[in-house]
Amino acid sequence: MSPLKIKLGLIVAAGLMLSGCMQTATQFQAAPEASLKPNDKAQLAKARYAKVAVAEPFRRAIVDFHRKEAPGSIVVDSDNHYLYFVQDGGKAIRYGVTVGEEALAFSGVARVGNMAEWPKWTPTKDIHARIEGLPAQVPGGVDNPLGARALYLYQGNKDTLFRIHGTNQPEYIGASISSGCIRMTNEDVIDLYSRVKPGAVVVVLEPKAGDSPYNSKLALQGGGGTPY
Fold this sequence. Notes:
Family: Belongs to the YkuD family.
GO biological process, one term: cell wall organization
Strand order of the largest sheet: 10-8-7-6-11-2-3-4-1-12
Strand content: 25-35%
Pathway: Cell wall biogenesis; peptidoglycan biosynthesis
Keywords: Cell shape, Cell wall biogenesis/degradation, Glycosyltransferase, Hydrolase, Peptidoglycan synthesis, Signal, Transferase
CATH architecture: Beta Barrel
Signal peptide: 1-30
């Protein structure tokens, strides 16, 4: 084979390899069906909200993770609308989230002080002050704003009143509109809930602090994920 043909072959092979890498980085997958219990399937089948597909950069993926939190910890990067569940070997499961508006957002270190499936919702006084006509309590179910699961964030023995929970507004994943809580799709929060242990550390990074797993907003936006 002539040197020219060999060179052309190498170029084509390199192009195919690059194409494969680019495709792999964007083939994000939904949470596995195995994490859904019979009641989850029954509740989700009754959902009246629009089943909007999450934008590709915020779909679930396994990514490299370069911070020092221990496996089993949760890290929330509000600036980039990502939640990381830290795993062994420098990896994390990355989920897209909705976070609070800047004036309402929580940041700091907490722990998972309580966990609930299809939780009831008791609006706080602040929420009642902002939204008129709310009931004192909303029973658990697919139409409840807390969705399928809730992780209650505590500092010491005190409930911070901030939660990681599901949502019946999946169209807002990747936005900053909540009353301070961290929202996930119901499918993703069910998956996260199945992995998290009570007492797990939750680190919510300071906004605009430049402190992210890659220390770069550009690096976080939708790239480098392995399908999961």
